[in-house]
Amino acid sequence: MNIIDGKALSLEIKETIRQRIAGLTAEGKRKPCLAMILVGSNPASRSYLRGKGNAAAFTGMDSRLVELPETAGNAELLQEIARLNADDGVDGILVQLPLPSHIDENLVLDAILPSKDVDGFHPINVAGLWMGRPCFVPCTPQGIIHMIESTGQPIEGKRAVVVGRSKIVGRPVSKLLLDRNATVTTAHSRTADLGAVTRDADILVVATGHAGLITADMVKPGAIVIDVGINRTADGRLTGDVDFDSVSQVAGWISPVPGGVGPMTIAYLIKNTLRAYELSAEGR
Ligand code: NDP
Question: Are 34 and 52 in contact (CB under 8 A)?
Fold first, then answer.
């Protein structure tokens, strides 16, 4: 069994970006800039944003954190987004999810300029992904594909099973696998006999938010297993959706939690922001 080290892979990506930004600075150009909006003070959201800010700083990218109180309404948030949309010094905008329940998430995500939507959640970018047009592809799915490709195993012709059908992970990663000519099954909470489905997978991606859902008897020997889940145990540790200890006895490759998909998501956020910069007037 081989471990897919997301932390090491993400460092390689960030190092390449760091060198590119050093080159831009040497040419006297502006650095790319990522703006992040946090509404309220959810500790997990704050910790994710800290990770994103640190990754930007590592690469030499500028970042801005815009904090709004928990009581902020749709109008305040839309006003902030309009300001960042109009700011030529900002290349990427992300709104940290989840938003407080009184905020209309669709309204907010739709307000971000598609050309600055580095999370790839705007309908124009979602449509672009499904229609095969140029677009910003969501970060976690891109990171997952990178991790699978890092094994050196071909994706083409393989049976891939994605457990989870969310808009931000399950669906887009299913599409990316399909684009690479895997035969893809997307499983979910109503899938009958999940084990029978997952046992068929040469490539198994699990994104459910259920700790330990996937056990060794559900995995094909030699499979590539990517664990997207982030769950907190009673004693505060992070754990994935895959029972690592047992599945690692069966799988050919497995990604750990922490140190797997999480750092790759952040690396691709920074990569998307650099791309937004490069597509902007200043970056060209
Ligand atoms: P959602 O809650 O939006 O979706 C979960 C999906 O899993 C749903 O499609 C649901 O099915 C399915 N599901 C739930 N329970 C089961 C089950 N028992 N059997 C089969 N399928 C099931 O979650 P997200 O996709 O946003 O996130 C999934 C996990 O990944 C979470 O732990 C999250 O924290 C983590 N995550 C990690 C990221 C990273 O960077 N590492 C980034 C994003 C998410 P149904 O549609 O039928 O309800």
Answer: yes
